[in-house]
Every structure is written in C-alpha cells, then in structure tokens.
C-alpha cells in the first residue's frame, strides 16, 4: 500500500511544482481532477484531441517519477437541469477515454441525484420513507433515471477497460454501503466505490465494519478524517447543514488524518482494507477548515507514512 494525493489542494501550483512538492513528502502517486467539482487545474480533457499535449503530459509525469491512481470528475450526471447533467456526463465520458489512453485504472465520480419528477429544477435527496410520496419519488428516481444511465455508463467503462469508483456522499442517491451495492448490482462489476471513511463517520456508519460489507467493490480510497462533537450532535443530528466554516456550532467537521481518529484506528482501517483485497493507494484529500492546505498535507503525509503497510507479509516461517 502507498500514499497518494488528490491534487486540487495544490491547484494554485503548476503541475511540475505540485509534483516536486509531493516528492518532498515521499509521495509519487497522484489523483487528478478532470473537471466538474474538482476542477481540471492539472489535467485537461482537451488532451484527448491533441496527441502532442498528451505526449508532453505523460513525459512530465514520467520525468518526475509519478503514477496516476485515478482521474476524478465528481459531478451530478443525474441533475434535473439538463445542461448541468450533460456537462457532468460528458466530463465523465471523456475522463474514461483519457484514463484508457493513460493506462489509469479508475475514474472517480458521484452517483448523482435527480429531482422528484421530469419537471424538477433541483435535485431531491430522499432521506425518509414517510409520508409515502417520498418513497414514490425514490422509486421513480432509481427506476427512471439512475438505472438507465448507470447501466449504460457501466458498460461504457467496461468496454474501455476502466472502472468507475463512486464516492458515497449524502446528497446523492449513493451515500452508504447499501446504496452503493444496489447501484453495483444494477450497473455491473465495472462500477464500485471510491471509499472515503470521513463520509461514513458523520452518518454514524462504522468505516471499518463497512469495508467488510463492501468487500471487493472498493476500487480506490481517500484518506480523510472526521471529528465528531457529541455536544453539538445532540442539537444538530448528523444532517448538519451549517457551513463547514462554522466549526464551533457544527456536529462534525472534516479533519486531516489523525486529527479525528488516532493511529490505532487508522492502523486497523489500513489492515482491514488489505484483508479484504485492497492493497493500493490511500489518496490524501484535504478539506480540513482548521488547517491550511500546506499544513494539512504535511501532517497527513507524516502521520500516514508511519501507518501504511508498505509490504505484503510473506508466508509464515513455520509453513
């Protein structure tokens, strides 16, 4: 297992400078945004139509000794606004094609969230089964919007030798292990998850127990922590809609690895991932509102470098 970094936290730097900085932390793997929410500061989809740009991009990574763990295009491909949905879908499609050309195994995205009908203007995330119209909305979403799109997109990815890793996140139809496996059953084995434990913590889901449920559906992993504030949670519950910058009054906030849970927890997390077949990249994602990107990256890299299992254990001496 090895560390990587999701590079939007370094988006103010040219790619060459970002790679040089990451080398100082002993990191030589990156996850690159290609558009939608992460932006495309370091990886332009226009390279698909320009072989010379693609060649220069490959050379830049090779010269610095870097590999790419994933291309990420988190968006809402099911948005009820057709223009937004089309943009997200096209960015996903081109990301898959670019991943194929670059030999990158995974494209990360959100599942998306439709509205409540064909006439909707905004997404509608259903969170409870009553009154009964909510379940009618949820059924319509999955039957009429989620299923057709993801069957087609799962096949497209498989045809191009790329896996799609869905990041489970509230606000979208896939936000939990149960909804992730439901989508995977519909879309096929080319669709799995980008596993971010921070999103499990604040929903009250044990991230380590969830690894056992997800099993071989884990295609990529984000390294990000969450700190819970029980006193505030008693007031807010887990569905806290206050801005992330209102740290004093929120029930939870995202934290740099080690600031929400200690080394013992992260050691068990990494060990359980390996136990269930994931022995690849932990991609550091910085969203800690209490630390700068520079400090968050350095703290996470230092903390996780002491924890990642760098070598697979061999046979026991008595075998």
Describe this structure in words.
The chain is of the alpha/beta class and 319 residues long. The chain has one domain (2-305): TIM Barrel (Alpha-Beta Barrel). The protein has ten helices and ten strands. The strands form two sheets. Strands 1-2-3-4-5-6-7-10 form an eight-stranded parallel barrel, surrounded by four helices. It has a two-stranded antiparallel sheet with strand order 8-9. The longest helix is centred in the middle third of the chain and has 27 residues, at 133-159. The mean pLDDT is 96. Residues 20-306 form the Xylose isomerase-like TIM barrel domain.
Strand content: 15-25%
CATH class: Alpha Beta
User: Structural class from helices and strands?
Assistant: alpha/beta
Question: What about the largest sheet?
Answer: 8 strands, parallel, barrel
- Termini separation (Å)? 25 Å
* Count of domains: 1
Give me the count of strands: 10
Task: Give the topology.
Layout lengths: L1 E5 L8 H9 L5 E5 L17 H14 L2 E6 L9 H21 L3 E4 L23 H27 L3 E5 L9 H11 L3 E5 L1 H5 L5 H8 L3 E6 L1 E4 L1 H7 L15 E4 L7 H13 L5 E4 L8 H13 L14
Parallel strand pairs: 1-2, 1-10, 2-3, 3-4, 4-5, 5-6, 6-7, 7-10
Antiparallel strand pairs: 8-9
Structure at a glance:
By secondary structure, the protein is of the alpha/beta class.
